Amino acid sequence: MDTGLSGKGVLVTGGAGGIGTAVVRAFAAEGARVAVHYRTSKRRAEQLAEEIGGIAVHADLTIEEEADGLFDSVIAGLGRLDVLVANAGVWPKAPEPVWEMSFERWRATIAANLDSVFLSCRGFLRHVRETGVGNIVIVGSTAALFGEADHSDYSAAKAATSYGLLRSLKNEIVRIAPAGRVNVVCPGWTATEMTREALQDEEFVGRITRTMPLRKLGTADDVARTIVAHASDRISGHVTGQIVTVAGGMEGRVLHD
Predict the structure, then answer these.
(1) What is this structure's pTM?
(2) Residues 29 and 8: beta-carbon distance below 8 Å
(3) Which residues does 117 contact at the CB level (< 8 Å), separation at least 6?
């Protein structure tokens, strides 16, 4: 099916990461012009941008001035901007229950996963206000839906974007873009660089897949294809304000012994 994304301008924040890289390539395969955002992975972002004929752009999305400046760079480099994929985020590896978690870690995780999405969406919507068109796909997590013990900071940030922010933005965007849409794609446990260490433990993998009828881990391509579909007006033009899980049917209960 033709997605209608050919020639469109797309910004993927955190585009040099595991899921981000797959998302960048998936949009490029549809003929979109893609801006690969990075904070620290400069070489990887530049290589990926060269591979797909896009551009690499830098910003620390927890800093207001840098987040605002990012959009000037993207629009200048691509010539247009139609889609924002708010993918950038951090999952702290160390397991820490709330009573052991420092306020410093809490604030850093909230900044990386919530403040960054707010600033990205704000910058994008200021551009949409001028063009009258645009779609947003926010990358959430099943941690927002079911919680995640020892990672309450991450779960809380993802829940904020997946519920309150999503459902406010989908009502706001149509004031400036009548066909504008906002959706959230929530990956479950996905085999990426961010999760590689945790997923090396076979017992752990067995435990987490007990909640999934498909009993397997997702791939970055699984997530990327879903994001592209929800960015496309031709495929999902009447879908907005929705939380779509890419998690093998994960539930908040054990399904298998």
Answers:
(1) 0.93
(2) no
(3) 86, 88, 89, 138, 161, 165
